[in-house]
# Entry
Amino acid sequence: MPSAGTEIEFRNSSQKLSVKQIEVDGPSIRREKSAGEKITMLTAYDRTMARWLDTSEVDAILVGDSLGMVVQGHETTLPVTLDDMVYHATMVARGALQTMIVVDLPFPVDHTDISGTIQAAAAVMKNSNCAAVKIEGGVEMADTINGLVTAGIPVMAHVGLRPQSVNVLGGYKIQRDEQQLTAQSLALEQAGAFAVVLECVPAAIAARISGQLNIPTIGIGAGIGCDGQVLVIHDLVGLTDGPVPKFVNPYANVNQVIGKAINQWVHDVAEKKYPDDQTSYQ
Ligand code: KIV
# Structure
């Protein structure tokens, strides 16, 4: 494990994206894109999840505004506030002692208000000690990203399906306009983003975009050709209540494990098996 104050590289990979929040001399951004060594990022929304990830081999943690749907129960990410993001990011930071944390800036990110966006990002960073923020948006976000990076705030960009724009994209749809997606990704790289999330983009298009960028692409529903992959942890471990998107292949069924434990406990209480001598004070 890298020690506090040193630059942190992605584990299991020669990709170097960013730094850990413990640094006192401010984050620096470096990236080395090398074939075949994939970056992994998973969401976390509280300290418990952050501990799972911090003690795993995952490379980065995303405090995604997906928390609006996953933990708050909203139908979209739109109701999530900046205070919500700070609240969850702060909990995650208490559990993630080694792993790079990226925090979503919530809807709306006003591309005409660069200074306001810097203030919002700074609020997240000051309170949560995260290393970087993520912003959804295309070419219109280039000046904002440039402003953030100039102010010392590392930015992960996010193009393709942008859930904050679900109402203008006409729903949660696969994004197939290669020309537009390429132009957006290149513009955001040029603006200073250190990585770009590609969400719900056909695999061949995402692979071609990845080939054109110097910064890493992190795909979600964007195929094998991206430089890394990101998923919502609830989807990965089978904690999601309800159907999951096609690109999710749950690696566990934690819902089932938890449901079984709860019912077993209820039965043991009913049958006076719990608490027993061992779980009581004498
Ligand atoms: O909010 C989120 O969790 C995300 C990922 C799914 C990429 O943006």
Observations:
- The chain is about 35% helix and 15% strand.
- The radius of gyration is 20 Å.
